Amino acid sequence: MAETSYDYEQSLTPSSVIVGVDEVGRGPLAGPVVAAAAMIDRADPIEGLRDSKALSEKRREALTLVIQARALVALGAVSAAEIDRLGIAPATDLAMRRAVLALAPPPGAAIIVDGNRVPDLGAQTTIAEVKADGSCPSVAAASIVAKVTRDRAMVRLSERFPDYHWHTNKGY
Asked: In this predicted structure, what is the pLDDT of residue 123?
């Protein structure tokens, strides 16, 4: 799979500040939904960003360290109990909103969300782009950090509940 493109990302919006948002944990029937919001300085591009599903676990872990050192990143999570109460779609939107609010992007920032629908993420301009995690660096960065964060949570759950083997079946 090809690397993401800063030019493509910029073509989606006239904003000079872009926040990428992605989530992980919608598919599995266990654990939290985790979303990340990432703002990358275009003057300091991060090489190797692509959809987290196209990277090995080792590469995701390494890139997470780089992303956290060179980009602004925030996380939002929704627990399994909240998912049960709200339903998966509202819970996913809430995780993304929590991530964006924790990042506190400046006024005028544009948010690019991986997917085909625009969640309510506050007053910011929000753009939905299908497969943005494979084409937009900021969304790929968010995808990678969200996946690594959720994987770590699932490993901790696996330690508490070893019969489920979540350390080997973390899911997306």
From this structure: 67
Spatial separation of the C-alpha atoms in residues 18 and 169, rounded to whole Å: 33
Q: Kindly give the pairing relationship between strand 110-114 and strand 18-24.
A: parallel
Q: Are 137 and 49 in contact (CB under 8 A)?
A: yes
For 71, phi then psi, to 5°, come to: -130, 165
**Tokens 């085909």 belong to which residue?**
116
Q: Which residues are within 8 A (CB) of 71 and not within 5 positions of it... i.e. 6 or more apart?
A: 38, 39, 40, 41, 46, 138, 141
Could you tell me the pTM of the whole model?
Answer: 0.94
pLDDT category of residue 1 using cuts at 50, 70 and 90 = low
Q: What is the rounded distance in angstroms from the CA atom of residue 86 to the CA atom of residue 83?
A: 5
108 DSSP assignment: T
Tokens of 129: 């782009």
